[in-house]
Amino acid sequence: MGFFSKSFDPATDLPDLSGKVILITGGNTGIGYSTVKHLARRGAKVYMAARNQTKAEEAIAQLKAEGLGPGNGDVIWLELDLKDPRNAKKAGERFMKQEKRLDVLIHNAAILLENYTMTPDGVQEIVMVNVISHIVLTRTLQPLLDQTAAEPNSDVRIVVVASGAYRFVSGETHFRNLDDLNNELKSSLSPTFARYCVSKLMNMLYAFELQRHLTAVGSPITVIALHPGVVNTFSDKPPRSNFKFIIEPITRVHIPRQFAAASEEVAEQRQKYKGAYLTPVGKANRADEGGKDEGLAKELLNTVDKFLEEKGI
Ligand SMILES: NC(=O)c1ccc[n+]([C@@H]2O[C@H](COP(=O)([O-])OP(=O)(O)OC[C@H]3O[C@@H](n4cnc5c(N)ncnc54)[C@H](OP(=O)(O)O)[C@@H]3O)[C@@H](O)[C@H]2O)c1
Description:
Layout: H1 10-13, E1 21-25, H2 30-41, E2 45-50, H3 53-66, E3 74-79, H4 85-98, E4 104-107, H5 125-149, E5 157-161, H6 178-181, H7 191-216, E6 222-226, H8 244-250, H9 256-262, H10 264-268, H11 270-273, E7 276-278, H12 294-311
Parallel strand pairs: 1-2, 1-4, 2-3, 4-5, 5-6, 6-7
Helix pairs in contact: 4-5, 5-7, 7-12
Bound molecules: NADP nicotinamide-adenine-dinucleotide phosphate (NAP).
């Protein structure tokens, strides 16, 4: 089972999470929803950072109806629209006023397979949502993550839900400027899927660069990137439904989000899991060279930093 020394059942194998505060982006639906459920059921206070109040409230009502026992944690909506990095910053600032700790931050929300759309800030939406606004949110929350990490017996984690799809990025890839970030990839067999894969490569690069940085400054925080498995959150949502014929046959069991976010094994073997790439199946579970490319990670972050500086964010 690769990184997993034994099979892992989030319903029974997660420790008591009472007193822990967890923030997950998205979480009102899809893969994030079940992550919220398992963490709250072990007693965590989970912030569901979602853009749509009605959808979030309905999801929370549903979670409560399904039951948050035995740990009886809490689920709270935090307004967050990742299309606008200013909104991500504000959401982080609101959270910092509301909470005294943050044990786990999970980058989960994403645009998956959507038509090419440009944001008013001149960055394509999939890069803004999946990558840049998550970076802004994390940076805004960093002081609280650091403060929590400085407490005795703390175990602060940043979990980046990436995807094995990053491996499909082919050809020479650069992130030198906004043109590179906005590449439509028109010559790809499926430009929609290709843009998603690139955004997931960016997630991987960011996660490992963040771990390198945190380790270099002496922070004990663990950053983990993961592929959650292939889960059918596609069939009913055009234009994703075009991919239904691929997705449905390969849908399979998925567990590493809860493992990455809260398992005891990660706490006990931090050095092994710092900067790790977890997948539900497979052996090596180390990101390949593409995902670990330090030069490309720096290129990406330089471009993001320049963009944010120009926008005053
Ligand atoms: N499903 C898979 O097979 C698979 C495989 C590999 C990796 N992943 C990764 O797993 C994660 C979850 O995917 P999923 O399949 O659960 O997708 P999903 O069902 O489409 O859920 C995506 C979540 O992101 C939120 N979101 C989208 N745009 C947002 C924005 N502008 N601001 C705030 N939230 C926004 C959505 O909120 P709304 O409900 O408001 O749209 C939703 O909560 C993603 O990072 C994805 O790349 C999934």
